[in-house]
Structures are given as C-alpha cells and as structure tokens.
Design goal:
binds flavin-adenine dinucleotide, five-stranded parallel sheet, alpha/beta, binds iron/sulfur cluster, about 5% strand
Length: about 525
C-alpha cells in the first residue's frame, strides 16, 4: 500500500503532523508547475522565491528521511495541468492512496476536489494546520454575503486564543491603540530607520528554467534573491524584526518616504514593516510562531516595545489575516465577480513600468517592480487609491496585485483589493471606501515635496491629479455614500464651494480621466 501526499508551493509547513513519522511507503510530491507560474503574470521574484522555497523544503524533508519526488518545470512541462501530472505519478508509482492539504485558493481547491472525486483509489483532504482557525470553523465566524467588521472578529480572536489579555480584559486597558500610532516620519527619524535584513540566495538555475519555459513575468531581480526561503532565514528575519522594527512598528505603520537610498542600499521601502508575509503565506512560518515570538519580545523588552506597537502588530496577523481568509472562503466564487461601483476602466500602462509624473505612484510602483513588495499603506492609499478614484475595473486591479507582490495569493489578495480598497464588494470588508485626495498622501509621506504636481492645487495645470479625481469620485457615488455618517463632512465641504468652482473641478477630473495614460 503506497501513499502519495501532495505538497503545494504555499504549504511548506515543516511542523505539519504529516512529517512526525517517517514512513517508507509514503511519497511526498512537490512540483513546479506551469499552471501555477502563469495563471496570472507574476513578478519574477515571486516565482523564484516560491520555487526556491519548495526546493529547499524538499531537500529538508529528504534529509529527515522522507521519500520525496521534486519535479522541476523541465519535468512537468509535458503535462497539461496538475491533475494530468498526478494521474501519471499515481500510475507510475502504483499509488493506492492519495492525500492533499486543504488548499487556500478556491481555484486549486476546486481542481483537487474534482480530481479526487474521479479517482479510483482512496483520497483524503487534510487540514493544512497553519491558521488559527481551522477551515471547518470559518462558517461559525463568517456568513456569506454579509457585512463583517474586523474589530468584532479581532476581539473574539484575542479572547479565544488568550493573546494580550489580562483575564477578561485587554492587556493595556484598550483593544486597539491605532490612535497612538499613524505618525509621519520627520527628517530626524529617517536616519534611525533600520537597514532591512536581506538574503542572498542564488536562484540562477531557477531563472534559467523560467526563461527556458517562456513564463511571462514582470518586475526585476538582481543576481540573487533577497527574500527568506528557508525556515532558518525566515526565523532570522522574525528575530531581526522583533529586535529592530517592532519597537516602532505601529508608530510608523502608515508612514511613507521616498527620501532614502536606492535599490539594495535602501531602507525606505520597508521601514519598520516585518516583510514576513512571504514566509507566512508560504507557511514556512506559522502565525502562532510569529505572534508568540513578538509577544515574548514585548514582555522581554523592558519597555522598549510599547503596548501600542505590539497590539498593532498582533492585530494584523491574528485579526486582519484571519479575517480576510474567512471573508474569502464564505464568499467565493461570487466574490471574484463583485463590482459594486461598476468600475470599467483599463489600468494605465505605466503600472507596468512606473513611468508616471505622479511621484507617489512612481515611487510605489517602481519599488514594487524592484522588490515585489510595497507596504500596506502604499498598496491601499497610493496605487489602489488611484485605481479606486479612476474607476479601474476590479479584474484589472486584482490581476496586477495578484501578480506583483511576493505575498500575493488569492485568499489574502482578493478581499484586500476588491473588498477593502476598491469597495467592489459593497462593504462586506470595510464600512466605507478608502478614498483620499492628495492631502492624505502629503500628510503621511514626503512624496509631494518632490512631485511634478502641487498637492495644494485642484484645478490648475500643475494641480495634484488626485484632488479633482477625489471630488469626482465622491460625487459620482454620492447616492451610495451619502448615507454613511462618516462621509457627511465630505459632502458638506463640497456644498460650500460655488457652482463655478464645482464645475471647474469636475471638468478637470473629466479631462484627467480621459488622459490617464499621460499622467
Ligand atoms: P507587516 O506590515 O509587517 O504586517 C505583518 C503581517 O500582518 C503581514 O506579513 C501579513 O501577514 C499581516 N497583514 C497585515 N495587513 C494585512 C491585511 N490587510 N490582510 C491580511 N494580512 C495582513 N497581504 C498579503 O499577504 N498578500 C496579498 O496579496 C496582499 N494584498 C494586499 C492588497 C492590498 C490592496 C492591500 C491594501 C493589502 C494587501 N495585503 C496583502 C496586506 C498587507 O499589505 C501585506 O500583508 C503587507 O504589506 C505585507 O508586508 P509585511 O509582511 O511587511 O507586513
Ligand atoms: Fe501624489 Fe499628488 Fe503628492 Fe504628487 S502631489 S506625490 S500626485 S499626492
């Protein structure tokens, strides 16, 4: 009786109970697949990081005594897709039982469920043993097509897992310390920003394979890979984060700067963020390991890490990360089609090369092309804000985000883009659209100081385009937005402007919308 266990590229969880015992009748299969490298145009660093992490994981399993088949793109190129490959391996190896871990992506879950159903041998789907909430528990926290709010879910998670709690009360006396955070970086702060801990992994052979198999990619890669692709390097990044970044994580969580350095000698791109998302989403690190390590660092820090910093960090992982997963699974596959604001425009071509005169967009896009990374506020309030204000079709937005970021896997990407930032889900994830004029970007960054446009202007030739676009967007969707009390000030401000000024703003916005390529 021979058992085949499939390990997907984002299931590199060395602590999974599968590996507790070594069994010579169990074969593990890890494979580089054309279907996974090309279901969207991915960043070159993203494909290289996944393949290298898979290869390293296979090597570690073999060293531990497990039977492993690792197939490269060269080996799998002849198969149309994963099911065709699996069929062959099952025959060749005379497999009598097939198992796989619950995929996090709907697409793969459907494909493997359909494959298993038609198999003549026994098959099982097991828990991936990664998240705080098991897949089977999601429906007790989330309902299909229903508006959910993070805060309620997050408090329930803190209570259930007894994290940052003093008995029944939140540690520090508050559930949320957001108001203590959200600071802009001042000139004196720039010199203190830690250099990011980067890795130097040789991926030459992988790049050759990607090239040989004509996989279309975007973005740039240096000679080596900067991301952690093994358990040891991911742990090193976690420790580095707790020591150097966590003490100011929350404080500068929303800040942005374009003032620091250039590629590979640059600390402005990640600031105090952890850059652990790839290690987490590929399951090299577990959320429990990250959360517990950070909380221990907080307790051992003699006050260097304040409650506002640790709470802000835990909320991202215990809160947001688990929250978007629940929204995704309870709303797929329809969530992928939602377009509540009826957005239809195409993404300007400069999203693929960063060649725009808007400094904020140029900075966030160029950085994303260089590193396959932008931090949360760059994604939400710079690039996605532009897409929201200009009515870019959600499919276009999703495909760009799903491709460009090192951590982009649909279960986490989709609720963040289609939901949180594009409001295409009509409010399932967030209570209001995160629309902003240039004012917000000026408040949280130094981008505007070096920009071709004037952030204080609305209608002049050199006016910040986001200003007129913002008003146009809020007016266009007034019927949907005006009932939300959080928008009442916005519409009151609009009414204070004379009809002539209102007209000028809307004409300016129409002109911009007709010329997005030229920005
Ligand atoms: P940190 O700022 O250090 O945060 C720590 C961890 O918290 C992250 O590693 C991540 O695991 C988790 N986290 C933080 N915010 C979120 C969030 N909103 N949703 C889920 N987890 C969160 N995250 C992805 O992992 N994959 C994506 O494809 C993705 N797409 C996004 C698209 C948009 C439009 C937006 C606004 C956000 C997106 N995020 C995504 C969430 C967030 O931006 C990234 O998790 C974060 O920037 C990763 O960098 P970091 O590890 O340095 O995060
Ligand atoms: Fe961006 Fe406007 Fe500021 Fe330029 S002026 S950086 S376009 S917000």
């Amino acid at each position: 009786m021979k058992h085949l266990r499939l390990i997907l590229g984002d299931q590199l969880n060395a602590s999974h109970s599968w590996y507790k015992t070594v069994d010579n009748n169990t074969v593990y299969l890890i494979c580089e697949l054309h279907q996974e490298a090309s279901y969207v145009t991915h960043h070159i660093q993203k494909i290289a990081a996944f393949f290298k992490a898979m290869e390293s994981f296979a090597t570690a399993l073999s060293k531990a005594g497990h039977q492993v088949i690792y197939l490269t793109l060269d080996d799998t190129a002849q198969y149309q897709d994963l099911p065709h490959l699996l069929e062959t391996i099952i025959q060749q190896q005379q497999i009598s039982q097939f198992s796989y871990q619950q995929p996090d992506e709907y697409r793969l879950a459907q494909q493997l469920a359909a494959f298993s159903q038609q198999l003549a041998i026994a098959s099982t789907c097991v828990n991936s043993e990664h998240f705080y909430l098991a897949h089977s528990e999601l429906s007790s926290y989330f309902k299909t097509n229903t508006k959910h709010r993070l805060e309620h879910f997050y408090r329930a998670m803190r209570r259930r897992f007894n994290l940052l709690m003093d008995g029944e009360e939140p540690h520090g006396g508050q559930w949320n310390f957001d108001t203590n955070n959200r600071c802009k970086l001042k000139a004196k702060d720039l010199a203190q920003i830690p250099q990011p801990l980067l890795f130097d992994t040789n991926v030459t052979e992988i790049l050759e394979r990607i090239n040989r198999h004509q996989i279309t990619t975007m973005g740039h890669i240096g000679s080596n890979l900067l991301w952690p692709v093994t358990r040891a390097s991911a742990k090193a990044l976690l420790i580095y984060f707790c020591q150097y970044c966590l003490p100011r994580f929350g404080q500068f969580q929303d800040a942005m700067t374009g003032r620091l350095g250039s590629f590979t000698d640059d600390n402005g791109w990640s600031l105090y963020h952890s850059r652990l998302s790839f290690a987490l989403n590929s399951k090299i690190l577990s959320p429990q390991q990250v959360v517990n390590t950070a909380i221990n660092a907080y307790h051992d820090s003699n006050g260097d890490i304040s409650i506002a910093q640790i709470e802000g960090f835990i909320r991202q992982i215990l809160g947001w990360r688990e929250f978007v997963r629940g929204i995704y699974w309870l709303n797929m596959p329809t969530y992928r089609q939602l377009n509540a604001l009826d957005a239809k425009r195409a993404l300007p071509s400069w999203f693929w090369n960063g060649d725009t005169t808007m400094r904020c967009q140029q900075q966030a896009i160029s950085q994303s092309l260089d590193y396959s990374y932008a931090h949360h506020i760059q994604r939400l309030m710079v690039t996605d804000n532009f897409c929201l204000l200009t009515g870019i079709a959600p499919d276009e937005v999703d495909n760009w985000y799903l491709g460009i970021y090192i951590d982009a896997i649909e279960w986490v990407e989709l609720p963040n883009t289609r939901g949180m930032s594009q409001f295409a889900d009509g409010g399932i994830v967030g209570s209001k659209a995160y629309a902003a004029s240039g004012n917000y970007i000026n408040k949280m960054s130094d981008y505007c100081q070096d920009c071709h446009y004037d952030v204080k202007q609305i209608t002049s030739d050199n006016a910040c385009p986001l200003n007129a676009l913002y008003w146009h967007f809020m007016l266009q969707h007034q019927a949907q937005f005006a009932n939300n009390p959080r928008n009442s000030m916005v519409y009151a401000n609009w009414r204070k402007r004379s009809p002539t000024v209102q007209e000028e703003i809307l004409v300016k916005a129409q002109h911009l919308l007709a010329n997005l390529e030229q920005l």
